[in-house]
Amino acid sequence: MKNIVILISGGGSNMAAIVRTAQREDWAQRHGAQVAAVISNKGTAGGLVFAKEQGIDTEVLDHKEFASREDFDAALAGVIDRYDTPQAPVLVVLAGFMRILTPGFVERYAGRLVNIHPSLLPAFPGLHTHQRAIDAGCKFAGVTVHQVTAELDHGPILAQAVVPVLLDDTADTLAARVLTQEHLIYPKAIAGLL
Ligand code: GAR
Q: Which of 32, 43, 119, 178 could form a disulfide with 129 if both were Cys (CB 3.0 to 4.6 A apart)?
């Protein structure tokens, strides 16, 4: 069985969408894959509760307890690699994981590390994407699923979805419209990879 490990920092709605899709579409049967673990860098991440309820392994690694980014990433890789086998390399899915990863970590999981970013990359890498899209006068915004490379919010694009930016949008209303699309395209992009 191929294991999927999902990394979160917050509410985990994308993680939940992936888990629900995997259940509904029977990924174990169809793709020989399962969401095996959810790891958070924050003990308070709401998504951990959902994951536990689903019987998925959860783990908290608080980045503040590590002396350096390298130390944190090494510990993270240690947990992820429990789910890795040469026959079925683990797929690492970043779903609202708000940590910059070291080049060494990215290299270790090259080709099997994916991220979702709430903008139409290459526009607006980084934070506050929705407000920046509004401020720039964008008529459309959206979301990108991409392979992770060492450069933040870059890498080959696997899927995108577009939404309109409305005249009275705030960052919150736009974020909500984009998030609805995130929940549709992220599970689909992962199924495509599987
Ligand atoms: C999502 O909008 C995701 O695209 C974004 O964080 C949110 C997490 O929501 N990710 C990034 O900004 C990464 N650069 P969720 O915890 O409910 O899935």
A: 119
